[in-house]
Amino acid sequence: MAAAKIAPRLPKGMRDFLPDEMLKREYVFDRVRETFHLYGFEPLQTPVMELRETLLGKYGEDAEKLIYFAQHAGGKEELSLRYDLTVPLARVVAQYENQITLPFKRYQLSPVWRGDRPQRGRYREFYQCDADIVGIGDMSADAEVIGVVVTALRRLGFPKFTVKINNRKLLIAIGHYSGVPDAQLPDLYRSVDKFDKIGADGVRAELEQRGIAHEAVVRMMDLLQLNSGSGLERLAALAKLLGGDQEGLAELRQVAEHLANAAVPPQFYEFDFTMVRGLSYYTGPIFETFITEPNLGAVSGGGRYDGLIGLFRRESLPTTGISLGIERIIDLMDELNLYPNGIGGTVVQVLVTVFNGDTRAEATRLAAELRAAGVHTELYMQDKNVGKQMAYADKKRIPLVAVLGGDEIAAGVVKFKRLSDGVEVSVERGVAAAKIRELLAD
Amino acid sequence: MAAAKIAPRLPKGMRDFLPDEMLKREYVFDRVRETFHLYGFEPLQTPVMELRETLLGKYGEDAEKLIYFAQHAGGKEELSLRYDLTVPLARVVAQYENQITLPFKRYQLSPVWRGDRPQRGRYREFYQCDADIVGIGDMSADAEVIGVVVTALRRLGFPKFTVKINNRKLLIAIGHYSGVPDAQLPDLYRSVDKFDKIGADGVRAELEQRGIAHEAVVRMMDLLQLNSGSGLERLAALAKLLGGDQEGLAELRQVAEHLANAAVPPQFYEFDFTMVRGLSYYTGPIFETFITEPNLGAVSGGGRYDGLIGLFRRESLPTTGISLGIERIIDLMDELNLYPNGIGGTVVQVLVTVFNGDTRAEATRLAAELRAAGVHTELYMQDKNVGKQMAYADKKRIPLVAVLGGDEIAAGVVKFKRLSDGVEVSVERGVAAAKIRELLAD
Questions:
Q1: Assembly ipTM
Q2: What is the dotted CATH code of the domain comprising A12-157+295-345?
Q3: What are the residue boundaries of the structural domains of chain B, listed by start?
Q4: In this model, does residue A102 exceed pLDDT 60?
Q5: What is the pLDDT of residue A1?
């Protein structure tokens, strides 16, 4: 340990979480985990490092540049840090196919690493939070992952949000209907995807600028007008416009039916034929969830990707899933003030102060009693006067202090003071833990 | 995603945790976290990667070879994966000294990476679990971290274990008492440390073989005889032998007093003057915890290290702490069968079966009701007969199935079957969640 002292620094784009922030993150993680458990999703954990060959060729050239490689002195394997949670899932499904019972409903809440340019809200180490159902082609699975998103956001306290639902198959059908040649379809989707940002006129201008035929643009504009009315009405209108039913529409109708049966409140989802998710691996329904009031952007995405799970396996398995933008959600929890009172700050519920040297033994006994009764207790350990101890509790945002002077000890009682309002109360030692719970619940 | 398919494999020494194992790990993590919270330790999380310069020169040459280095294409920083949780703690204490209120009682439960030769029970990615108190020189802090270990192991259900307590200062005093020259002290400690394994005769033989003077060996043997009697008796006997009090003895007497006040049951700790912890950075009391019945080795270590926190800071701060060997504890939980019934397997409490296509809507409604009432519910999604659905529940170790055929729907009831004993019961839909809790609690 003889190294020269260097300045304590973090790598760029990486973060420490001190207790206050950590407790808030854990509050969010716990609510999300609870929601996954309600829906029967099981936890999975893969190691931080994967073999380099497992990740290479999976994300495209640009993304691949962002992958971290790792090695120890003399290590013979080429290793990479996890870039997302989907490729590890595909590996796990293939590697343990004899141990896994299908459907495999798993979630993973884990950090990933990307050597991206750090900026506000974008980090090089960040958590992803995915829930997927492997092995079910039926639309009930798609409805279920939508239900998970709605339930998680409601349990976190987000008042207004919308899961936008579209279907990759429908986007293709719409492209064909519009008469746009296949080669131009990516351009078409890119413009359509901006509908929310630049409006109908903006999309029209952009399409024409891209050289898409006027007639095709007009037909597209009709489609973009469909974004009103209830879910089933929109689906019916689109069917009429496209001149007949489409596989993609039939699927969305099934999704709508399952969502209604599952009592997912209709204000939380809508069909939006202009929503295009970038990733090319989607094969069916796609979802994207936006916080709408205030308008704060996307917090979740997902969809069906029936081909991807076959990356490490002879045959793929039908799969649908969602990813919660958990870092964004954590930021918004603060911005919208959604944390309940008492989340963050400290785990400590009560500080047992030490009146003087003679009373330390009794203070230690009291702390032990409270801990045995399940109270998160800090015993003051420095040699300072009670005023300083109160100031310490205040600074650390500990809600209650216990005072145990000679009089209290003689009378077999303990005095509690609640720092938020100065309420003081003396109770017998035997009921101290119960009184603490009462004081914290008020 | 056009890469050739490769075999799904893990890097050497790394592990996936499928749901069954993950649920058991989380049970252990949760019990440990609860214990830390009872004692007022706060969660901290540092990033997986640190700057290479932060770790270099901190662990010694042999250890340094095991550190993983990381880099992304074009990345300008030299990065390393976390090797332990102590150096990051020292960095955090220095980096945020204006934000952190002392004492800083933090725990961290996080993976670390070491490119060690993998073997049974030793992995290249494994979790460490540390709780430390930074900023307190008083022995009440040392007693508190001992209390944390005892409480955590008791809450996990370990019936018999002992925290062995010694003091680095005492080891030095004993060395001097024995008349062994300073240069030979490391040899002396290495032999003394083997007392439990090779006994008094073994240690004597080894000391003489190492060339330690006969008289010194005889004096050491007297000391090794002290390992009987109660804690305070041992301390008194050693004081007598050493011919006067020692700082190290006075400290242990204070630890003993705090432990008694904190009602830590005496069967869970003892003073053992032959216990030597390898790490050179300890400066005061040291602890090592052994599972004693059956004799299963060490599961926790720790001690006071008043110099280390100064690695990144002008002045150090007095610090004491413990590390739980959490991977070893997890292995022993299985070996000793300490998991309560129902831990592991699946998160799912009830499988809602689907009688036939006509009843799927109603089954979906039931699943939604149960989830809203807090029950972890899986809705069966495949098109198979009820017998196959029962077999699926059995295979996945789901404890209850709900059956909802036409008769049940007409009568507004639901039938539950408990798979462990075949008990069947029909109840009204409105009390279904309550009945599930009852069936699971029986």
A1: 0.95
A2: 3.30.930.10
A3: 12-157+295-345, 161-291, 350-441
A4: yes
A5: 46
